């Protein structure tokens, strides 16, 4: 008889170490992992239930310089909070940053990248919300287009094709895969990172069409497809190769 799958329980709390707020998530794991998360550099520690707060505090304090450095790097890569979508600001795209020019004219709002500049054609009386909506719609088109090109490139190698690829904004995941339907969903924020990050997340989710879990078989398959997948994961999560941070 197959054994029942053990339920995983997560307990969360928080503490402050040298003026840095740290979120602690106690899980059914063996080691402590420190992660600096985009877009604001939030610090999360995943730890076994047996590890006490003082031990975690000491571990965080011992890596405080690395945490501060990674937090600065993550914040520098992330879009500025409170964009007004006006001429002179910069918008993130594929790991870079492009100057924005708003062209006030009649007609439907249109966004385009031309000559290293992002242009928004918008009505003179358009609101910030309307311009933001136009940019996000443009982001979504770019992400879907790039993802579908990657699907075509990777389907022969993976041996399975997603039934559909969708995009939405997600707070805690870069992507997801509905195993039964074969539908893959991608986080809209991926359009702001280097394209290798999109490729990693997409191949990760396509690999779930072959193996539902994150076990040894899944990791072997992913390593066969993308030998440097851990480096890309670390880039996406704002970590260095030498870090002991968490997983996406």
Describe the structure.
- The chain has 248 residues and is of the alpha/beta class.
- The protein has 2 domains: 11-77, no CATH class; 127-236, Zincin-like, CATH 3.30.2010.10.
- Helices cover 35% and strands 26% of the residues.
- It contains 6 helices and 11 strands.
- The chain has helices spanning 53-62, 64-77, 128-158, 195-207, 216-225, 229-236, and strands at residues 11-17, 20-27, 33-37, 42-48, 90-93, 96-104, 110-114, 117-122, 164-168, 175-178, 183-187.
- The strands form 3 sheets. A 4-stranded mixed β-sheet has the order 1-2-4-3, covered by helices on one side. Strands 5-6-8-7 form a 4-stranded mixed β-sheet, with helices on one face. A 3-stranded mixed β-sheet has the order 9-11-10, with helices on one face.
- A hairpin with a 2-residue loop joins strand 1 and strand 2.
- Helix 3 (128-158) packs across helix 4 and helix 4 (195-207) crosses helix 6 (229-236).
- It is globular and about 65 Å long.
- It starts with 10 loop residues before the first strand and ends in a 12-residue tail after the last helix.
- The model is unreliable at 1-8 and 239-248 (pLDDT under 50).
């Amino acid at each position: 008889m197959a054994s029942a799958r053990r339920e995983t329980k997560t307990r969360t709390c928080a503490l402050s170490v040298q003026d840095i707020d740290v979120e602690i998530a106690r899980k059914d794991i063996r080691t402590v992992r420190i992660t600096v998360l985009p877009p604001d550099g939030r610090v999360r520690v995943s730890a076994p239930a047996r590890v006490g707060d003082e031990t975690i505090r000491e571990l965080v304090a011992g890596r405080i310089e690395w945490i501060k450095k990674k937090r600065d790097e993550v914040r520098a890569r992330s879009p500025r909070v409170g964009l007004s979508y006006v001429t002179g600001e910069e918008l993130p795209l594929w790991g870079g940053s492009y100057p924005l020019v708003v062209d006030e004219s009649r007609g439907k709002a249109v966004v385009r990248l031309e000559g290293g500049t992002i242009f928004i054609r918008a009505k003179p009386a358009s609101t910030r919300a309307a311009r933001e909506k136009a940019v996000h719609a443009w982001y979504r088109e770019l992400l879907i287009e790039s993802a579908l090109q990657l699907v075509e490139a990777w389907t022969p190698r993976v041996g399975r094709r997603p039934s559909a690829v969708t995009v939405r904004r997600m707070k805690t995941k870069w992507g997801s895969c509905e195993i039964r339907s074969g539908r893959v969903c991608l986080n809209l924020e991926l359009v702001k990172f280097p394209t290798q990050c999109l490729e990693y997340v997409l191949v990760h989710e396509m690999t779930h069409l072959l193996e539902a879990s994150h076990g040894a078989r899944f990791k072997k398959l992913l390593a066969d497809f993308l030998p440097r997948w851990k480096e890309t994961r670390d880039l996406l999560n704002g970590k260095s190769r030498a870090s002991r941070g968490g997983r996406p």
